[in-house]
Design a protein that fits this description.
Layout: E1 4-7, E2 13-17, E3 22-23, H1 30-40, E4 49-56, H2 62-73, E5 76-84, H3 90-93, H4 98-101, H5 107-116, E6 122-126, E7 129-135, E8 147-152, H6 166-175, E9 176-184, H7 189-197, E10 201-206, E11 213-218
Helix pairs in contact: 1-2, 6-7
Length: 220
């Protein structure tokens, strides 16, 4: 399937799939979306502690990259697990501009390290950020009571409705520790209802640029 690198509204890049008319991040701003949905609405709930994060849809590694630097600011020791069934290609990685668009020291070095490490093994990216990349389909996830935070960043329900079902969200619920949180850019009513059915307490939040709302779910 053909994929193209495009520039989003905030100047950062993403991958666009013409056949689906879909991109990996919001066309209104890849970096803006990542910060609003996953950092402001998720990671910011945690400070000065150890935390385990599961990312559903590792993709370009943007969320992991930003989280690795935000962990330092928030005095967090992060164990990060990124799940991706179809890793992106090296030639695509080389065209992404996150290292120049993000104002982090050694950003390019960290980004390259995130993508150069082997799949299925845990690596210490920095003193406070450990990363495991798992090449895995989402419905094969069997973790239990392991994570404090889930970044749910799968392709939208319009294209892959099977990723936004009760069965998938039951796996997410089981993966979280009690008090754990899941955040996603989606605000679809069917997604919210599926989350509630499996036991989540769900709230609607202001969405990132270009979206009116997003969802945050908690296991209590």
């Amino acid at each position: 399937m053909k994929r193209e690198i495009i520039i989003t509204a905030d100047g950062s890049t993403t991958i666009y799939i013409p056949e689906w008319d879909e991109q990996y991040h919001s066309k209104h701003g890849a970096i803006q979306e990542a910060y609003h949905v996953f950092i402001k609405s998720g990671l910011s709930l945690f400070e000065n502690r150890n935390i385990s994060i599961l990312e559903i849809g590792f993709g370009t590694g943007l969320n992991a990259l930003i989280t690795s630097f935000e962990a330092q600011k928030r005095i967090l020791n992060v164990n990060y697990v990124g799940v991706e069934a179809y890793p992106i290609l090296q030639e695509e990685l080389e065209k992404l501009n996150y290292s120049s668009e993000l104002d982090f020291e050694n950003c390019k070095e960290v980004f390259n390290k995130i993508h150069s490490i082997d799949w299925e093994n845990q690596y210490k990216v920095s003193d406070d950020f450990q990363l495991t990349k798992r090449k895995q389909f989402f419905d094969d996830i069997e973790d239990e009571n392991r994570y404090d935070l889930i970044y749910f960043d799968a392709f939208g329900a319009r294209l892959q409705p099977e990723l936004w079902t009760e069965s998938i969200f039951k796996k997410m619920y089981d993966s979280l520790r009690f008090g754990g949180v899941l955040v996603t850019y989606s605000a679809k009513g069917s997604v919210r209802r599926a989350m509630i059915t499996v036991g989540f307490v769900v709230e609607r939040l202001e969405g990132p640029p270009g979206k009116r709302e997003m969802l945050r779910a908690k296991k209590i």
